[in-house]
Amino acid sequence: MNRKNLGARLGLYPTPVVVVGTYDKDDKPNLITLAWAGICCSEPPCLQISVRKERHSWSAITERGAFSVNVPSKKYVVETDYIGIASGRSADKFAATGLTPVKGELVDAPLVAEFPVSMECKLKHSIEVGSHDLFVGEIVACWIDEDAPKEGTKVRAEKIDPLLYMPGGEYFGIGEFIAGGYTLGKKLIEK
Does residue 101 have a cis peptide bond before it, meaning omega lies within 30 degrees of 0? Predict the structure, then answer.
């Protein structure tokens, strides 16, 4: 094994980039960019996001019990990065980026009209972890651009063209299709 131990570091490479939507105590729609996010349960469908307590969105999520998770395509990398570095306490991120807030139909959180995937989430659990609190949201609706699905609910990654993040501060796009899941490994089972 030819590897080097870097110590206790963030070594999950890459991570998804998501933009989380909330309404603050004044009903102002707000956004935050996160890379600490992922699916955490199939039944019921749930995902997790991690947010620092000092962030404006942390209070909105805890007070409203809801948030949206929006998947930006790479053509929105400038807007997505801005959303992650500006504070919702002093900036109107929707106005600054030209993005359009859409009121969620099932939860009290705004969606981003221009992004190809948006999920409405009801806060199910919150766990204090350390520098971040982990929020588990039950996905109660998943909205996808009509040109993104391929067959039924199966979505092609190249249609979404999502952003990926490398901890340390770099954005990337996706690569080419390699193979379908749950198929290639069957060769080893059949041996």
Answer: no
Write down how long the chain is: 191
Nearest to 51 by CA among 141, 144, 142, 123: 123
Alpha carbons within 13 angstroms on the beta-carbon side of residue 100 total 5
Paired sense of beta strands 101-103 and 110-112, if any: antiparallel
**What confidence score (pLDDT) does residue 80 get?**
98
Buried b (16+ CB within 10 A) or exposed e, 121-142: bbbbebeeeeebbbbbbbbbee
| 122-150: pLDDT as tens digits | 999 999 999 999 999 999 999 998 877 76
Closest by alpha carbon to 60, among 37, 82, 31, 35? 31
Tokens of 132: 């971040």
